[in-house]
Amino acid sequence: MALGFVRPARPEDAAEIARVQLATWRVAYRRLLPRHVLDNLDEAWLARRWSAAVQEPPSAAHRVLVAVEQAEQSYLVGFAASGPADDEALAPGEPAAALGTGVVAVTDLLVEPRWGRRGHGSRLLSAAVEGWRTDGFTRAVAWAFDGDEATRKFLTSTGWELDGAARALDVDDMLVPQVRLHVAVPAEPTDTP
């Protein structure tokens, strides 16, 4: 197990979050998304978006967390972003009230592939769940590319299940199917036997 920890993102993390996102997408999604789309993603543009997400979140329940690997020096190796479920969490044609209340949506949960299988994803998810409990969320949803076996396997190994919703993203005239997963946010653990 790697030495690592999770903390809230800071403004100065935006460039590293963008770098991790781009590196991860280019490796993990190279067979799912058109190559020219991945090649043309602008890291500086992503960094500006992450800077805004960290510095000016839409609400206190919108969070960006980062995973840090500790070695001779520390490295930002992954991140998770989530917030109250909105229209982006819905399937096409699904009514706005379909998800109900108390639902949080995971918009990103990425660990750079070279740092995978070291516990960073589990630490990110665990820290996110703690925040969701604090905010009173009772259920979480996340969209995953149908062909992204690694993400689906990770989430289902932690109790997430497919909820039957599907959609296809139009990525430069290529439809890329996604499936939605959900999980109940576990209640606060108690110390009583």
Automatic annotation (TrEMBL):
One of its GO terms (molecular function) is acyltransferase activity, transferring groups other than amino-acyl groups. Residues 4-182 form the N-acetyltransferase domain. Gene3D superfamilies: 3.40.630.30. Keywords: Acyltransferase, Transferase. InterPro entries: Acyl_CoA_acyltransferase (IPR016181), Bact_Acetyltransf (IPR050832), GNAT_dom (IPR000182). It holds the Pfam family Acetyltransf_1. PANTHER family: ACETYLTRANSFERASE (PTHR43877:SF1), AMINOALKYLPHOSPHONATE N-ACETYLTRANSFERASE-RELATED-RELATED (PTHR43877). This is Acetyltransferase (GNAT) family protein.
